[in-house]
Design goal:
The complex is a heterodimer of chains A (about 300) and B (about 80).
Chain A lengths: L1 E9 L3 E4 H7 L4 H8 L3 E4 L6 H16 L8 E5 L10 H9 L6 E4 L5 H16 L2 E8 L1 H4 L6 H4 L4 E9 L5 E10 L7 E2 L7 E2 L1 H22 L9 E4 L4 H11 L10 H4 L6 H12 L7 E8 L3 E9 L1
Parallel strand pairs in A: 4-5, 4-6, 11-12
Antiparallel strand pairs in A: 1-7, 1-8, 2-3, 6-7, 8-13, 9-10, 12-13
Helix pairs in contact in A: 1-2, 3-4, 8-9
Chain B lengths: L2 H13 L22 H12 L16 H11 L1
Helix pairs in contact in B: 1-2
């Protein structure tokens, strides 16, 4: 059995409005809002690395949990925007956190990486001890690459989220998770070395709008949980229209899907944990109440995770 | 009702527009269909033709025109 002990997050201070982002692709804030629900996003400074963002979110999480980095059993960093092929940002992050000698694992998975990290950490924590799962992305470095695509450049922001998984006690028990991968459409969302991000938006939305609800249904049915009984759905913040579509498909009010994409844009693998961190401050786990995490990303990789407040 | 008329009716219901697209007209390029209406179209096809479309078949191009949808349905019959 593993538990969610605490969340943490870090967002850069620079706010980039959708008027500014829309202008990059010859459009305006209204169009950006209509196609994505994004009003603004945050961009990190040019000199900041993914590991800088990750370490700040991780430190925030550890501070809130009252744990030192040296007591961690493992650090996991999910990111699709690491600056180099190897080593990834995990070892830099662990160093910046002061987690000397603690094994640090990269999950180079855009968007769904944090969910996979939580699922893996829940299985490993009993063996290795507390695991700090971090999702961190510096998308601003990617969207700046020419040619900027209309449907891509306006979507993304920078940020990092973190979650501490412990084997003994916490705010919520991790009950179960469902993970899936299908490489059939792996070329529909890619980031080649030095190249712009390529996205077949129709394919991504079509697959995500089917796979996310299916994953949520699977995890809830396994534990005989009726969807209306779920306290909150904490989903990858890809696009407000997608969040609404998933809610509609499941017959759940959109309000049950916590959303902060309006303020931060799509921060890829960081988004779900940033959202979870904000949700935990505003609402938080309630004893016995189920909460479902869900994500979908390049690969395609997707899944859902069920937690229950203690 | 023949299948083509049925398809037009489905497209009109999903897009909430009374436009009658040409058989070979791209539903995306014409602006009738967008990324978020496509899943609704696929669900409607499954419902109306009593088929289960596997995720591996969900290439948007297969549903980009009436003729392409007909070709897909033929491949499933």
């Amino acid at each position: 059995m593993s538990f969610i002990k605490e969340f943490g997050s870090w967002l850069p201070s620079r706010v980039v409005s959708s008027a500014e982002a829309g202008a990059w692709v010859g459009s305006d804030a209204t169009w950006v809002m209509n196609v994505s629900g994004i009003e603004e996003r945050r961009f990190a400074d040019a000199g900041e690395r993914v590991s800088d963002l990750a370490a700040r979110a991780g430190a925030d999480c550890l501070e809130r949990a009252g744990l030192t980095a040296s007591s961690l059993g493992m650090v996991m960093v999910a990111s699709g925007t690491g600056e180099r092929n190897f080593p990834g940002p995990a070892c830099e992050t662990a160093k910046k956190l002061g987690a000397e000698g603690v094994p640090a694992v990269d999950l180079p998975m855009a968007s769904a990486g944090s969910l996979f990290g939580l699922s893996l950490a829940a299985r490993l924590a009993a063996q290795v001890g507390p695991i700090l799962v971090i999702g961190a992305e510096k998308m601003s470095r990617i969207v700046a690459r020419e040619p900027q695509e209309r449907g891509v450049a306006i979507l993304f922001g920078d940020g990092a989220g973190a979650c501490l998984i412990t084997p003994d006690s916490g705010r919520a028990e991790i009950v179960d998770s469902f993970l899936g991968t299908d490489g059939t459409f792996c070329d529909d969302l890619t980031l080649e070395n030095g190249a712009p991000l390529k996205m077949n938006g129709r394919s991504v939305i079509l697959q995500a709008s089917r796979k996310i609800p299916a994953a949520i249904r699977t995890i809830c049915e396994r534990h005989s949980i009726a969807l209306p009984d779920v306290l909150a759905f904490l989903m990858h913040q890809a696009n407000q229209n997608l969040i609404d579509k998933v809610a509609d498909t499941l017959g759940v009010a959109s309000a049950r899907f916590f959303s902060n994409i309006r303020r931060y844009g799509n921060t890829s693998s960081a988004s779900m944990l940033i959202a979870a961190c904000e949700w935990s401050r505003e609402v938080g786990f309630q004893p016995g109440q189920p909460v479902v995490f869900a994500a979908f990303g390049a690969g395609f990789n997707w899944g859902a995770l069920l937690a229950r407040g203690v | 009702m023949d299948r083509r008329a049925q398809l037009i009716q489905i497209i009109q219901a999903v897009t909430k527009k009374q436009t009658v697209p040409e058989p070979d007209e791209s539903l995306f390029d014409s602006g009738l269909l967008d990324s978020f209406a496509l899943p609704d179209l696929v669900s409607a096809l499954e419902r109306e033709f009593s088929i289960q479309i596997p995720d591996s078949d969900l290439n948007p191009r297969k549903f980009d025109s009436i003729e392409r949808i007909e070709a897909y349905l033929d491949s499933r019959s």
